[in-house]
Amino acid sequence: MRIRARWSGPARKIRGPARVDRREFLKKAGIGVGGGLVAGGTAGFVRKARAGEKSPYPDARQVKTVCTHCSVGCGVVAEVENGVWVRQELDLLHPISRGALCCKGASLRDVAASDKRLRHPLKRVDGKWQKISWENALDEIANKLLEIREESGPDSVFWMGSAKMSNEQCYLFRKMAALWGTNNVDHQARV
Ligand code: SF4
Fold it and tell me: Counting atoms of ligand 1 from 1, which one is nearest the CA of 106?
């Protein structure tokens, strides 16, 4: 993706919009934020990068994998002990991300392992969330959707996909929207 941006710092004046690629844009944005912090007298927030803590799982197997949140496919090293993914590390040698991860990739393991993960459907009744079965949840959602379509037509619903979905899931999701009867379907990252 190409981003049009204007760079107007005193050291490097460019007349008119300059073309920078995504990586360059992020690099410059980072310099801008860092410079702003130092200029604002908040040097305590800025420190030299150094190696992180040692893994508390020295016997864990290191498994190279990729973040599945989007199609960039940044590298992650999963530490696996007794068949359980216990910790994650940056993959400094990955040819695409070279050790970098956005916040979604940095919390990749938490998607499955976090205590805060939603493990069953919840329904809000009188302002309070109640646990309901998957069967009930599916029935309620399906009935509500059919009611909406009956009242307002198929274009009254927008089907929102996710960067977390695989290619095959996206294919099925698009089919589902077509089956429903609308072209109102897109991907959350575009929005
Ligand atoms: S770390 Fe971020 S940019 Fe990289 S694949 Fe995951 S979601 Fe995409």
Answer: 1
